[in-house]
Amino acid sequence: MKYDEALIAGKLRRWEKYLDNYRLPDWEEIPDLGLYMEQVIVLLKQYLDYMPPELKEEQFITAATINNYVRMRVMPGPEKKRYYRIHIAYLIIICSLKQGMSLALIQKIIPMDISEEEVEKIYCTFTALHSTAAQYFEDQVRLLAGRILDHQDAPDWAVKTPVELIIETAVVGTFARLLAEKLLLLEGHTMEDGDDITIVDKKR
User: Where are the alpha helices (DSSP H) in the chain?
Assistant: First the structure.
């Protein structure tokens, strides 16, 4: 694997600048007019613009995937083929999280059959956490890639090459997903649930 370090450094700087100005829409900014499927897909591509084109092309969102989410009861179905604010909020959360979490676990974060007020509360919390996580990750990448970015104060543990950066961030992503899944599976358990907690601990 060969990479141009100047190209990688430039890409990292552009991405950092982009994330500094990126945010998901506020609840009130999401249209509640009743959009058709094609309009929803265009809107989601605008809202989730931070995902690279290659991911959008292969894994992002299509009419078939939206229909599948409805069929699997991951999100509520449209009203007379129209999608409203509540539907789009579900889709923003689902599309944001499905890159690193199964649909079954996403359902635990934003379950079906809850009121619009509850969906709004979950969505607002999610967007705030999304911004915090983006800033945190941006800060960590700046440190991790300090040598590639030619920072004089790069920590000793900073990676030396683009290949090391790719591997390191992939491993971090794996650990982050595992931790999120393990914590979600503890829902409803207490320290008195000895058998269930033991099972979780053995998989740790």
Answer: 5-21, 37-47, 53-55, 63-71, 85-97, 103-109, 116-144, 162-184, 194-202
Residue 146: domain span: 5-202
Q: What are φ and ψ of residue 177, in 5° steps? A: -65, -45
Tens digits of residue pLDDT in 37-68: 999 999 998 998 876 555 444 556 899 999 99
How far CA 118 is from CA of 24, 73, 93, 95, 172, in Å, comes to 18, 17, 14, 19, 32
As for how many domains the chain has, the answer is: 1
Closest to 19 in 3D by CA, of 138, 124, 140: 138
Give me 62's structure tokens.
């299509």
- The pTM score is 0.84
Residues sharing a CB contact under 8 Å with residue 98, sequence separation 6 or more, in sequence order:
106
